[in-house]
Design brief:
The protein is an alpha/beta fold. It folds into 2 domains: 172 residues, Aspartate Aminotransferase, domain 1; 265 residues, 3-Layer(aba) Sandwich (Aspartate Aminotransferase, domain 2), CATH 3.40.640.10. Helices cover 36% and strands 16% of the residues. It contains 14 helices and 17 strands. Strands 4-10-9-8-7-5-6 form a 7-stranded mixed beta sheet, with helices on both faces. Strands 13-14-17-16 form a 4-stranded antiparallel beta sheet, with helices on one face. Strand 7, helix 7 and strand 8 form a beta-alpha-beta unit. The chain is globular. It starts with 6 loop residues before the first helix and ends with a helix. Pfam families: Aminotran_5. Its EC number is 2.8.1.7. This is Cysteine desulfurase. Its cofactor is pyridoxal 5'-phosphate.
């Protein structure tokens, strides 16, 4: 059921929007959070659901008491909520609850590397199984694949967008040896939304499967994994609750049940087994096999409440609102001197993420200016996507090597604004006003904050 409300009332759904924070001069202002790509504040409904459920909290599965039975029911209902939210097929797919998207990707990498003999033959480096990642990925969708598979990267253009022609070229080059294409649904640096269903169709044409890192995409736009018979079906999907207004440390890995039946789990222990002797183990079927130990029930309850709230608002409404904020910011930035903006103003489908630098001011210093002068929280650095940032900044490899060997040297990076559903134009106006002042008085702010 949709929640009928204006954009202004979105703000009332989120906790902490009126929190006061101190400035450099000791005064206090209402905080402005433009760091939503890193993590989002909790929804009011999430905290209400947590507090309402807390008296009934108990260990799930196998408990005969009322609280345990209720907890088990809530846990499994949340699993179905997750599957329905992204258009997964509960008859064929499973949703595995983990800590975050990073753990989900590591779990899938382990499973594909250590599963059945058929999986091992298809994915192991010794058999020259290839995983194609891309040059725009977060480290979490790069590092888990290293060492387990032959890994290659789809190239990007000068603006950081994927070269889909390079994807097809590499699929042709490896002649059927690519077993998985793994790609972010949207970049955490530039906000570019990748055409993942088109990528899926290309991957499937060459016999490969696809995994989408939905960490940035799922909280901001509608998403559908599509039916299993479709050429554009998404085989695997991961995302994190803490980026969709549900703290408490939960992530999700969705994929075919058949993937998780063979082989041992990456983490073993209580809850993963049917029978254990000193000589033998019979594992539970998935998803229980992949959820060792007492699960994070509160985190799952929080995610369930967040999804129901987002679905009530309408993901299309959220996407339009955040795009409006991004367009408004980019338009305002055009007239401010000394700004380097690392996305194009028009022509690309993007989330509400804008990376930039003020010439002559180190990115870390600029983030300090934003916080100290106006209470604005933004992210600075390389956003756990070093290769992508280095490419966008055109940093030569020799400079990167020198920086690695010189720990005290200032590292390249950017500052990043990222919007949430509760942000407003008046907050963007505060940012634009400060950027105007800083760009025209750079020396003063450098003296003040260096």
């Amino acid at each position: 059921m949709r929640l009928l409300m204006s954009k202004a009332s979105y703000r009332n759904l989120v906790i902490g929007v009126d929190t006061l924070v101190p400035l450099h001069n000791g005064q206090q202002v209402t905080a402005i959070n433009f760091d939503n790509a890193a993590t989002t504040p909790p929804l009011v409904r999430v905290m209400e659901e947590i507090n309402a459920f807390a008296p009934y909290y108990s260990s799930i599965h196998r408990g005969a008491g009322y609280k345990s039975a209720l907890s088990s029911e809530k846990f499994e209902e949340a699993r179905q909520t997750v599957l329905d939210f992204v258009g997964a097929d509960s008859r064929k797919d499973t949703a595995i609850f983990v800590k975050n998207a990073t753990e989900a990707i590591n779990k899938l990498a382990f499973r594909l590397c250590s599963g059945s003999d058929e999986q091992k033959s298809r994915f192991s480096p010794e058999k020259k199984g290839v995983v194609l990642s891309t040059s725009m990925e977060h480290h979490s969708n790069d590092l888990p694949w290293r060492g387990r598979f032959a890994l290659d990267y789809v190239e990007i253009d000068q603006w950081g967008r994927l070269h889909l022609s390079d994807l097809e070229n590499k699929l042709q080059k490896y002649a059927g040896r690519v077993k998985l294409v793994t790609v972010s649904g949207a970049s955490n640096v530039t906000g570019y939304v990748n055409p993942v269903h088109r990528i899926a169709e290309t991957a499937h044409k060459y016999g490969a499967k696809i995994m989408v890192d939905g960490s940035q995409l799922i909280p901001h736009l509608p998403f559908d994994m599509r039916e299993h018979g479709s050429k554009r079906h998404i085989d695997y999907l991961v995302f994190s609750a803490h980026k969709m207004y549900a703290p408490f440390g939960t992530g999700v890995l969705i994929g075919p049940k058949d993937t998780f039946v063979p082989g041992d789990p990456d983490i073993t222990g209580g809850g993963t087994v049917q029978v254990v002797t000193h000589e033998d183990v019979i594992w539970n079927p998935p998803p229980a096999k992949e959820e060792a130990g007492t699960p994070n029930l509160m985190g799952v309850v929080a995610l369930d409440a967040a999804i129901k709230t987002l679905r009530g608002i309408g993901m299309d409404n959220i996407g339009r609102h955040e795009k409006d904020l991004a367009d408004y910011l980019l338009k305002g930035m055009k007239s401010i001197p000394h700004l380097d903006i690392y996305v194009r103003e028009t022509g690309d489908e993007r989330l509400g993420i804008i990376p930039f630098n003020v010439r002559g001011i180190f990115h870390e210093t600029m983030a300090g200016v934003m916080a100290g002068e106006a209470g604005i929280a933004i992210r600075n650095g390389c956003f756990c996507a070093h290769p992508y940032i280095h490419r966008l900044l055109k940093v030569p490899n020799m400079d990167i090597v020198r920086m690695i060997n010189s720990p005290g040297e200032q590292k390249p990076g950017m500052v990043r604004v990222s919007f949430g559903l509760y942000n407003e134009r008046r907050e963007v106006d505060v940012l634009l006003s400060l950027l105007e002042k800083v760009s025209r008085n750079r020396r003063m702010y450098l003296r003040k904050y260096s």
